[in-house]
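Whether sequence alone determines local backbone shape is best considered at the level of individual chains. When preparing material for the folding task, we compiled for one chain both its residues and its backbone structure tokens. No coordinates are needed to read the tokens, only the vocabulary itself. For completeness, the protein is quoted in full, as a sequence line and a line of structure tokens:
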Amino acid sequence: MEHVTPGLKNARQERFAQAVASGETLTKAYVTAGYVDNDSAASKLGRHPAIVARVAEITGRGAELAAFTVAKAIQEFEEARLLAKANEQPAAMVSATTGKCKVSGLLSEYHVLEGGHNPIKVDDAKDAREEIERRLAGIAARMSEQESTRQRIETGADALGALRGHSVEAKFL
């Protein structure tokens, strides 16, 4: 059985260690723990041997649990696949293999539609349609703005030409 220490005796120092272990900066963790914002004091506390040891313990245990969870899930999916194979249940075998692939990151639940500068990442066809419609609406709005600007330039050129007494032509590509 794994030996787990109950934490630091000082509650604020324990909160500080937990905040640092969760990824907060020393200064942010210092404030989270209930101390007044002080970069120097946060840095000093972050170097304290008891804090360093506690953060290592928390992050080490977290990494072990995360690794165990993935490994255990893969193991259980493999056991389910073998049971399905022994019982001649191909659909269950495929399901177990799919589960292993998802847990290990080999299979994702979204699709990427490519064909431009910004690929579209979607969960299903409805999401794809909505995202494409949203992007097309944005393009149409930009084109409308450009047309409006073009018309204002042409109107301004006509007015300037009338003031000068001759025709001025605005040319666009």
